[in-house]
């Protein structure tokens, strides 16, 4: 069979959260490769028939740890909303975040606008196709307590639990703009979601897709009931395709994969784990014994259709991850269907069969995608995984000819000229069948790009502990040899992570992290970015080598330097040599020192502006007056060099520059005042030689009046200006002074640039690092600060029948305390103040609707969200509105 060309789909990231392995992908693979049974035997759970002789419970289940924990703050979700939300929704939301970061595409942005989206030709359209199991949390925890609906209303409960909102909620919380679709086809849900994602990518509806599913059955600490006709195992073990099989075992877990068109993934330097060559889905229709029965013809057709879509011969497939329920009827039909498609002669290598259900139990809506992840990792490692239990009582003669189950893992021998391939099947109760053909990815080996000499790695979290844990996890990863390259880390973190209020940066070189950057403490970014003032001092003794690290990295520096030096004749060559010399030589000749300083300051300032550091004002001190004036547009860069030469006595003649009024405020330490924006400064002002008295206190007062709370960037080299300004930092002066010290090398500049970013300045670290051509690689992801957000079912609340309904307010309760109480109950936050902003607390328009409803019921006046849209969204403003409305109503009543 000649292989056809179809649109290959790259798997650029995988995520699982499974019994026994949690969300640790290495632990997942170790569990699979070692053939372990991860299903838990529950201590204290009932076993056997009950006292009345009815079928009892089997004390076995695939348990998922910590389903009650969630980091609501990271997602901007009020705690009360998190408590109401189905844990399946929360787990999948968290998985989507982590998976995007693993794939290096984590800056999809979110609804608060944190983070930037990057991609070729603009922001990528990221789609979500996912499904979930039955909403046990809603049925057994929420609806069993009538007081919850009485207080919250039905709509908030529906939005927090209904499957309709599963995928759309992920898109909303993470700011994803591709198609968001909840997929539900029983046990084939997650593999069908993958198939839908493949189709969305091929049709152009999305540029990147997250696809998968989740299943959390509650309560987890109980076994499962045996009922007549049940497909559940009496032995408590799921043994697909093995003799003695008697059914499946329930399991909780989730899986998610990140997909892109292969051409896009290669062009964008993604890490490609495997390639989906083809997929197909269908339904059995009525051609089977009953609605819940599997259909032979439908399974044969879907597997063949997937290979037609892939354009490959089924004979080239080397491993099959089966549906494998472990029931006699289900497995027999599946094996017969596979034998029909994969007809093999005696000379053929036996085709290994596996099923993740034997390891983790039946993960329901998540089963198919977890099987796909297992197959992807098997291809990635070149290992054929075993089937748990195969070495105990497997009967090979029960398998069709040409098939085998392995008791232990073994190397996956490659056939020359044919890539390793696997098939993954998933069949849903009701007859929706899906099959995916996945293939190993063997990239061509282009010459790797030269690694970066240094890069700023941005780290941020919602709190100080989180960002320090983030840094420690990254440092641990960097210590592994061979570790990721500097360019890979920079590309992944700058283009693949969201930004949060608490920030810390690390400067990385091929030798490891720069120790000085590791000594920094985390900074909390103010709600409003600080205004920036660029300040220019007069020290010339450290100017040698000042541009050595920036000149080769940044075209804007090279262009500006060469533009100025071209007009300086032979002096230009001497200045270039001094600025680019990294050796510990003497300072530049006295006749060129001032010019060297001017060129270094102007080039560094223009580089900062190109990186997004846009000043609201500039400050000039001594020789730094020239660079400050140039940046404000008072004269050209070349004219400025002439003025410096004349002022320093290195030239003769008079100033011939074309002077202009400044385009932004300029504060001079010579006068202590701002330059008149109407007239600027003329030649005689610049003819004055240095050594004039300076008025730093006056200049600071002028600067504070011009740009209150400004962050001052001292463009060195040298710290003399920083030393002069630091005593004034505080309420009556700058908020901070950050010296940016160019040279020698790139590290000093990048270190300070990272500190500017940490302080909240909008720095384009991607342009600063220049890592666009490097690969995105899996690296530590956001360190969630998970806390318990959980509503126990009524019978498990310490003997209580449930939380008491919200207390009725006293008739004479003041309005503001009443509004504060309702805010705190609605948001689940105990410390809401009178002037707190709703959106800053994680609320949104729907939270506003909930507040309006509760305030109406409590205050006896009809308040709609429309009333509140014109009011500051604070408790104090809402209380004022209610007082006004209540007064009007009483007046009319009289």
Please give a structural write-up:
This protein is an alpha/beta fold and 894 residues long. The protein has 4 domains: 9-30 and 60-111 and 135-226 and 265-439, Peroxisomal Thiolase, Chain A, domain 1 (3-Layer(aba) Sandwich), CATH 3.40.47; 455-516, no CATH class; 531-763, 3-Layer(aba) Sandwich (Malonyl-Coenzyme A Acyl Carrier Protein, domain 2); 808-893, ACP-like (Non-ribosomal Peptide Synthetase Peptidyl Carrier Protein, Chain A), CATH 1.10.1200. It has 31 helices and 28 strands. Strand 20 and strand 21 form a beta hairpin. Helix 10 packs across helix 11 (328-341). The model is unreliable at 108-121, 799-809 and 888-894 (pLDDT under 50).
Q: What is this structure, in a nutshell?
A:
With 894 residues, this protein is of the alpha/beta class. It is 36% helix and 14% strand.
Secondary-structure blueprint of this entry?
Blueprint: E1 9-17, H1 25-33, E2 40-41, E3 57-58, E4 60-61, E5 69-70, H2 79-84, H3 87-102, E6 126-132, H4 136-142, H5 146-152, H6 154-161, H7 166-174, E7 180-182, H8 189-203, E8 208-215, E9 224-225, E10 253-261, H9 262-267, E11 274-283, H10 296-310, E12 319-321, H11 328-341, E13 351-354, H12 357-360, H13 367-381, E14 383-384, H14 390-393, E15 403-404, E16 410-411, E17 421-427, E18 432-439, E19 455-461, H15 464-479, H16 486-495, E20 502-509, E21 512-513, H17 515-518, E22 523-524, E23 532-536, H18 555-565, H19 570-580, H20 590-610, E24 617-620, H21 624-631, H22 637-647, E25 666-668, H23 683-687, H24 696-706, E26 711-715, H25 720-725, E27 736-740, H26 747-758, H27 765-769, E28 787-788, H28 815-827, H29 845-859, H30 865-869, H31 875-893
Parallel strand pairs: 6-7, 6-8, 12-13, 12-17, 13-15, 23-24, 23-26, 24-25, 26-27
Antiparallel strand pairs: 1-10, 1-11, 2-4, 3-9, 5-28, 8-10, 11-18, 14-16, 17-18, 19-20, 20-21, 20-22
Helix pairs in contact: 3-7, 8-13, 10-11, 18-19, 18-20, 19-20, 20-21, 20-22, 21-22, 28-29, 28-31
